[in-house]
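User: Before I run my own analysis I want an independent prediction to cross-check against. Here's the chain; please return only the structure tokens and, at the end, one sentence I can use as a sanity check.
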Amino acid sequence: MPSSSLLARLAQPAAAASARRDRGALLRSIVANLQNVLNSRIGSAAAQMDLGTPSPHEIAAHFPASIGHLQLAIRACIQRYEPRLRSVEVVFVETSRASLMLHFQISARLAGDLHEELLFRTTVDAAGRVSLQA
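Assistant: Structure tokens:
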């Protein structure tokens, strides 16, 4: 099974070893990492200028055309910054126009031997905050 994130392994090496054997811990680690990287803004990390997603102001300024741009940015960010996932697809899920949230479904496969398919429900609120549920 794929390993936990580098930061998790450095912070708690013994816990990281058991996480490789525990699917629930692996999923929690992936979700936590995705929330961290997707809640970063492009250009905010000097060492990795492509880390994150566009600012909510950028999305709002070109809405609804920016939905496709956000969808591609989410996919690119996951592909680059979550190596435990492969075959990442991000699909916009239409909801009520009255809602100030955007919803996406992310599907991916675990890297490594299992290739298990995972689905994440993703919400982007009006402030640009991304939340995920496995």
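Sanity check: The two ends are 17 Å apart (CA to CA).
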